[in-house]
Write a structure and sequence with these properties.
- InterPro entries: DTD-like_sf (IPR023509), MTH777-like_sf (IPR036608), Threonyl-tRNA_syn_edit_dom_arc (IPR015011), UCP006600 (IPR012033).
- About 30% of the residues are buried.
- Helix content is about 30%, strand content about 25%.
- The chain is α/β, with parallel strands linked by helices and about 350 residues long.
- Helix 7 links the parallel strand 13 and strand 14.
């Protein structure tokens, strides 16, 4: 389940036209002030464990409400947050379940109708914590067998369907997702071109993980450029004197200049952030590369607080990593679908 949460002065909507999926409604127009608006999108994967999705969403939302000191919520169905929509029946059930579970916590809840075209107006408060994206995983707290290399969702082998008629499953438990038994994995490039943006080299894990990402992108055919301030670039160069892992490097100021002048472009941008300066770098890249996939790796002593500062579209990898890179490396591999 995907949720875009906005702390708002007010939210207003009015239904305009029904679809064939429209639920019966009595209220055609509604308004709520001093509230948190939840733009909610139920995904196909949520059908595996809808009760867990509702419970996890409730916990995440109530924690956010407590932090913002807000007791009013408007749930707004919004199908445009994913490319893998769940069934209408499951989606409506989960949205109603979230509505009821929040109401049971003494929260004032209103829900915009499902399956209707609506016009709406929202006035966000615009403070650093006003906007927040959430991803609710139906497998949270359990072990999964694979990560989908296309959508990066966790996958259990028991949930997969055979694709070879008459041959049963094409996978064994000791095989990698996407590999036929007895063969080596074939991994497609994550992107044809990529830009890697490490921040100031103050936190030890960044150097190792930057080389790890560079190595894995390049060996899968991605044309990669690494950009940063002179200090971080020199540190990486000293760590890789024979240039086994590092590709082209360019000072960040020059790189931004080329991006502004449209002399440089990329399909994927990865930014390291262990301070608010790193978040600013990521925001700059989002502005200069609006059509590119942007991944922000947030780490250090208080990564959750940093992640809360992000108010622009991106994918986030968050871990409290300072000296030990192993857990963050695992999360990075899962996002990219790398088998290493």
């Amino acid at each position: 389940m995907r949720i875009l949460s906005i702390h708002a002065d007010c939210m207003w909507y009015r239904v305009t036209k029904k679809t064939k999926l429209a639920e019966p409604v009595d209220i055609l127009e509604d308004r709520m002030e001093e509230c948190v608006v939840l733009f909610c999108c139920v995904e196909k994967l949520d059908e595996k464990n809808p009760e867990h999705v509702v419970e996890s969403a409730k916990k995440n939302v109530t924690a956010r409400l407590a932090k913002l000191k807000v007791s009013q919520v408007m749930i707004y169905p919004y199908a445009h947050l994913t490319s893998t929509l769940g069934s209408p029946e499951c989606a409506l059930g989960i949205l109603k379940g979230l509505e009821n579970s929040l109401r049971a916590e003494s929260i004032s809840v209103r829900r915009a109708p499902f399956g209707w075209y609506k016009e709406f107006e929202i006035r966000g408060k615009g403070h650093p914590l006003a906007d927040l994206s959430m991803t609710i995983c139906p497998y949270e707290g359990t072990e999964c067998d694979f990560t989908c290399p296309y959508c990066h969702h966790p996958v259990r082998e028991s949930d997969m369907n055979p694709v070879c008629p008459g041959s049963g499953s094409c996978l064994r438990k000791d095989d990698t997702f996407g590999r036929r038994p007895g063969t080596d994995p074939v991994e497609k490039p994550v992107a044809s071109t990529a830009l890697l943006v490490p921040g100031c080299p103050e936190v030890p894990v960044q150097q190792a993980l930057a080389l790890h990402i560079s190595h894995n992108l390049r060996k899968r055919g991605t044309a990669l450029t690494v950009t940063g301030n002179p200090a971080v670039l020199n540190l990486l160069k000293v760590s890789d004197p024979e240039k086994l892992y590092l590709p082209e490097t360019i000072v960040l100021e020059k790189c931004i200049e080329e991006l502004v002048e449209k002399k440089r472009d990329c399909k994927l941008c990865i930014v390291f952030a262990h301070s608010d300066a790193g978040i600013s770098y990521a925001a700059t890249m989002r502005h200069l590369l609006p059509a590119s996939r942007l991944i922000v790796i947030i780490f250090g002593k208080d990564p959750e607080a940093l992640a809360a500062l992000i108010d622009f579209p991106c994918e986030k990898i968050v871990d409290k990593a300072v000296h030990n890179p192993m857990q963050l490396r695992k999360k990075i591999n899962e996002v990219f679908g790398w088998v290493v």
